[in-house]
Design a protein that fits this description.
Shape of chain B: globular
Shape of chain A: globular
CATH superfamily of the largest domain in chain A: D-3-phosphoglycerate dehydrogenase, domain 3
Number of domains of chain A: 2
Structural class of chain B: mainly alpha
Number of strands of chain B: 1
Number of helices of chain A: 7
Strand content of chain A: 35-45%
Helix content of chain A: 25-40%
Structural class of chain A: alpha+beta
Number of domains of chain B: 1
Radius of gyration of chain B: 19 Å
Distance between the termini of chain A: 21 Å
Strand order of the largest sheet of chain A: 3-2-4-5-6-7
CATH architecture of the largest domain in chain A: 2-Layer Sandwich
Oligomer: heterodimer
Radius of gyration of chain A: 17 Å
Number of strands of chain A: 11
Distance between the termini of chain B: 44 Å
CATH topology of the largest domain in chain A: 60s Ribosomal Protein L30, Chain: A
CATH class of the largest domain in chain A: Alpha Beta
Order of helices and strands of chain B: HHHHHEHHHHHHHH
Number of helices of chain B: 13
Largest sheet of chain A: 6 strands, mixed
Chain lengths: 220, 293
């Protein structure tokens, strides 16, 4: 842990896992959707379901979806802000199979009709992990610059993506492949040592068989 | 790479002929690849956030569950009225009030600095803010003390844990108290041995403390535990300044904390099942609070 993980984060209370982590989950889901959400149906599991209300987990998730960071003083008022900004939301408590105790599943619709389902967990100290995207397993923390690439499950996709990255002098730290079923849709999660340019993202989007490219960089 | 032992920080100090806080600062510069100015600016931001939360206390606030709020105000009124007549005296009473207020602000969704966790966020500011304001200590010295605190916290996190779910309250309030004790020794002009002795004594005094939050909320007993963390830090720092040492070397105290945490039953590790959470009153509160959802 770095020094400012010990003295920090600066955050709205009361809990780094149930409040700060929940804001981060909402924020990551917003970035994954790539547009302003107008509807969010949120399922809370485990400790998020039982103690989430007292920890402000619900308000924290909505705050994240509205683009707030964990130190934003408006987090307690996020329900009202959501109403003003036209975000409809529902919360349901549900026990999920094999999920981390602090898990939320966010089903989102954006202003231009994009949809996204994100399952994420708050793993302590405000750190979070994405566990599923649109029902497909996909593990990443987005602590490093990360590319999430939706593609058709066919041969050549990985090598096409890897060559674009290598031509742009990007070193891959970790790469994982996930798919719904053979020949169905697949998700590539690539964690990189460096950030990547808009231009490189556009090149990736233009590749054959690539359906969607999401680029997350929490440093930017 | 963070230090794995307090003794390693001491060795680095001796080797580099530098103060405890400088060695921690340099480690941060190497670890995060930042300049001295950049690291100090981040520390100043952290300190200012602590000061802001301390001054932003709202005496009318109640947490959503209704379990906490207003005690920090009561304590403040008490010491303003009693002055030096109270048992602890005005200065220590202001530390107690500061710890309660920060814990309450956290429970009421105000902005705080997790140090090392949100549940223990009251300990460091409770001892540092009065030191800064009442003793007219320069900001630079406080920033140095925060590096001392963070260095101690990093070793505890690396060697044991700072999470209540992993190690019980000893890992949260105990760690915060050890960090604060070391910071106070630095402010009082103690040397690096006295810094780690104070940290060792403070942690030792809180070994075995379980994490038993009523209804799973960071409220009861967490808010008042910040007080014991802060006051224990002061008495441990004074003992170290008097030349008293921990008979068990501080790094071994941290190892003992880890062992106790590892063997602590899961009902005492933030699951809201055992201890105070499991009492008849605790269960009744949980039913009322959780039933409200």
């Amino acid at each position: 842990m770095n020094l400012f993980d010990i003295l920090g984060p600066v955050m709205v209370g009361p809990s780094s896992s149930h409040t700060a982590g929940a804001v981060r989950i909402g924020n990551l889901a917003l970035k994954l959707l790539q547009e302003r959400p107008v509807k969010a149906d949120i399922v809370l599991h485990g400790s998020f379901a039982t103690t989430g209300n007292g920890h402000g987990t619900d308000r924290a998730l909505i705050a994240g979806l509205l683009g707030m960071q964990p130190d934003d003083m408006r987090i307690p008022d996020s329900f009202q802000l959501a109403e003003e900004q036209g975000l409809d939301y529902t919360f349901t408590n549900k026990t999920l199979k094999d999920a981390h105790p602090n898990t939320a599943v966010l089903t989102l619709t954006g202003e231009n009709g994009k949809t996204m389902e994100v399952q994420a967990a708050s793993i302590g100290g405000g750190r979070v992990e994405i566990h599923k995207l649109d029902g497909v397993d996909a593990f990443f923390s987005a602590e490093k610059p990360t590319l999430i690439i939706y593609n058709l499950d066919r041969c050549g996709s990985v090598s096409d993506v890897a060559s674009v990255l290598s031509l742009n002098h990007i070193n891959i730290a970790n790469m994982h492949l996930y798919r719904s079923k053979k020949g169905g849709f697949a998700v590539m999660v690539i964690e990189m040592d460096q950030g990547i340019s808009k231009y490189a993202v556009q090149l990736l989007e233009g590749l054959d068989g690539i359906q969607k490219v999401v680029y997350l960089n929490t440093e930017e | 790479m963070a230090f794995e032992a307090l003794q390693d920080i001491i060795s680095a100090c001796e080797q580099m002929k530098k103060a405890f806080w400088e060695v921690v600062l340099e480690d941060d510069m190497t670890e995060r690849e930042v300049s001295k100015e950049n690291s100090m600016a981040q520390m100043r931001y952290t300190w200012n956030a602590m000061l802001q939360s301390a001054s932003g206390y709202d005496r009318t606030l109640q947490s959503k569950s209704g379990l906490v709020g207003g005690d920090g105000a009561k304590m403040e009124d008490y010491y303003r009225e009693k002055g030096t007549e109270s048992l602890c005296g005005e200065y220590v009473d202001s530390v107690i009030a500061g710890a309660l207020q920060m814990g309450e602000s956290n429970a009421c969704m105000k902005r705080i600095v997790a140090a090392p966790t949100a549940g223990a966020c009251g300990v460091l500011p409770a001892v540092l803010v009065p030191y800064f304001q009442k003793r007219r200590c320069p900001e630079e010295r406080i920033l140095e003390a925060l590096y001392v605190a963070a260095g101690i916290g990093q070793v505890i996190a690396t060697r044991a844990s700072i999470s209540g779910a992993a190690g019980g309250c000893q890992a949260e309030i105990g760690s915060a108290s050890a960090m604060a004790a070391g910071a106070l020794v630095h402010l009082q002009g103690g040397d690096m041995q006295q810094i780690i002795q104070a940290a060792g004594i403070a942690l030792k005094n809180l070994l075995g403390l379980v994490c038993d939050p009523v209804a799973g909320l960071v409220e009861v007993p967490c808010v008042k535990r910040n007080v014991i963390g802060a006051v224990n830090a002061m008495s441990s720092a004074d003992m170290a300044m008097a030349g008293i040492t921990s008979r068990i070397p501080p790094d071994q105290v941290i190892d003992a904390m880890k062992e106790i945490g590892d063997r602590m039953d899961v009902s005492f590790r933030e699951t809201a099942q055992g201890g105070l959470a499991g009492t008849a009153a605790g269960m009744e509160i949980a039913e009322r609070v959780l039933g409200r959802q």
